[in-house]
Amino acid sequence: MMVLLARWRRIKQFAFLEHVHKIPYNILPTTATLLLLLASFSAVVLVCYESDPDYIKSQYITLPLLLVLVHFLLFDKSNCLVQLLLLTVTFGGAVAFMVVSKGFTTIHEDSQVEPASGMEDFGTASSLCLYATLLVLVWVKAVKSSVRFGTLHECNNELAVMKEEEKVTTALFNTIIPKHVSDQFLTELRYSHSYDNVGCIFASVTNFWDFYEEKFEGGMGCIRVLNEIIRDLDDMLSSVNDIRKSDPRWRAIQKIKTVGSCYMAASGLDPLTEEQTKQGNHEHIVHLMEFCFKILETIKQFNTYTFGTKFTMKIGFNYGPVTDGIIGQNKVLYDIWGDTVNLSSRMMSTGVVGRIQLPAAVVPHLVDYFKCPKRGKVNIKGKGEMITHFCIDKKTPEQIKNNLAARDAKKD
Q1: Buried (b) or exposed (e) across 255-271, using 16+ Cβ within 10 A?
Q2: pLDDT score at 1
Q3: Are 327 and 335 in contact (CB under 8 A)?
Q4: How many whole angstroms separate alpha carbon 136 and alpha carbon 397?
Q5: How do residues 212-271 score in pLDDT, each as one tens digit?
Q6: pLDDT per residue as tens digits for the range 260-286
Q7: Which residue pairs, CB below 8 angstroms and at least 24 apart, start in 54-62?
Q8: Alpha carbon 142 to chain centroid distance?
Q9: CB count in 10 Å sphere of residue 294
């Protein structure tokens, strides 16, 4: 029973063995071995002394000893050579005992002398057979241990490879979907969330379609040029693999998607930034505007380094509530929706080349940091006429410091 408990202790389905599960594995078979040894000798003494108190046959001692040894070696985790040595010593002692006792006679109560019975030969033969069986069992156990070790080694290697592949897959997945979104999506297979303060931009390469033509390789060369522009913008944002390579100002900014030659990004779509905005810290929108200026600078550098290109960009900017989520089951898409997103797109489409256009409602969040002159009334599809502004440059550090001090004074 204790041997069975030693085996069953690893099976969690046996609720009644939960207390046994805490017992070290070697204690159970060792205790069972000692109990078996005690029971064997008790049986030998009881049986032999009932028949003849002065006579104990050798095989009755040898066979229980070998039986106990078999039991212990099958459940002990010692080295195979140690088990073989122990078997050899035990078997040698048993055979020597039988050979020495074979020439003696047993004296009964009637004082008649009889030669030793053939049971001694039977005991020796039984011991030989038992020893051979033990050798086979020990060899099988050694082979199983070797196979198990090899299999375990292979499993560990495969597990390491799988973990490495999982890291690569997770990193790739997080380049498509933000990490905090993917964690929930992989668990629940659905995701959507509403934010109150999100900055959204649309940056369009305005003259790319004038550059595009399909005369050479069906337009592949032109698409490669656009890919280089988009990659330059991606390189500025936080890298999933090594966040240290990116500017810390851009960590709250996430690329949403590209639509044709238009680059869409947003800030404030993570739990940390959301909590900061709830506490009145709208710093991420300032960083998003700085990112817009960096985009205009990047396209100028691209024109400098690339022969014969004169690409221009215009950017639409807005700030307000949005909802983000994942749609679809196959080829899932992460996107954001809301009036804030639509108006940001209209700011881009009605904008001016080389400028960043934003609605008047956003100016109070940026006026302390940037120069935002008024453009005037612009006819916006679905909105009618709206007053818009351009963000043309960042103010000097001294001006920003004074503006912030004045704002804090007004609060007090």
Answers
A1: bbebeebbbbbbbbbbe
A2: 46
A3: yes
A4: 86
A5: 888 777 788 889 999 999 999 988 886 544 555 567 888 889 999 999 899 999 999 988
A6: 899 999 999 988 999 999 888 889 999
A7: 54/107, 55/106, 55/108, 57/119, 57/120, 57/123, 58/97, 58/98, 58/101, 58/120, 58/123, 59/98, 59/119, 59/120, 59/122, 59/123, 59/126, 59/127, 61/97, 62/94, 62/97, 62/98, 62/123, 62/127
A8: 36
A9: 15
Residue with tokens 């912030």, as numbered in its chain = 404
Whether residue 236 contacts residue 201, with contact meaning beta carbons closer than 8 Å, is answered with no
Strand partners, 376: 388
Cα→Cα distances 224→228, 239, 295, 299, Å: 6, 22, 19, 15
CA angle 336, 341, 346 (to 5 degrees): 150
Q: Which structure tokens are listed for 207? A: 């003259």
Question: Which residue in this structure is represented by tokens 């900014």?
Answer: 253
As a whole number of angstroms, the distance between CA 412 and CA 245 comes to 40
pTM higher than 0.85, yes or no? no
- What is d(CA 253, CA 115) in angstroms, rounded to the nearest whole number? 101
**Chain centroid to CA 398:** 47
Q: Provide the CB-side half-sphere exposure for 31 (13 A, CA).
A: 12
Non-local (6+) Cβ contacts of 295 within 8 A are 203, 233, 263, 313, 315
> In residues, how long is the chain?
412
Q: Are residues 341 and 323 in contact, defined by beta-carbon separation less than 8 angstroms?
A: no
Q: Which amino acid is at 317?
A: F
Q: At what angle do helices 80-102 and 58-75 cross, to 10 degrees?
A: 180
Distance CA 43, CA 50 (A): 11
Quick check: 366 and 389 in contact, CB under 8 A?
no
Close Cβ partners of 354 (under 8 Å, ≥ 6 residues apart): 296, 312, 313, 314
